Amino acid sequence: MAHVHKLVLKGQTVPISTIQRIIKNNVNQCRKVSTNQGLWAAKTHDENTSSPVPVGEVKRYATDCMVSVGVKEDHASALADVLVAADYRGHYSHGLNRLEMYVQDIKSKICDGNAIPTVLKDKYSTALVNGQNSLGPVVGNFCMNLAIEKAKKHGVGWVAANNSNHYGIAGWYSMLAANQGLMGLSFTSTSPLVAPTRAKTATLGTNPITLAAPALNGDQFVLDMATCTVAVGKIELQRRKGLPIPEGWAIDTDGKITTSADVAMKGCLMPLGGAEETSGYKGYGLATLVEIFCGISAGATYGPNIRRWMDTKRKADLGQCFIAVDPECFASGFQTRMSDLMYHLRHMEPADPTKPILVAGDPERAHIALVDAEGGIRYHVNQINASAALAEKLKVKPMKHI
Question: Any idea what the Cα angle at residue 279 is, between residues 273 and 282, rounded to 5°?
Answer without folding.
Answer: 80
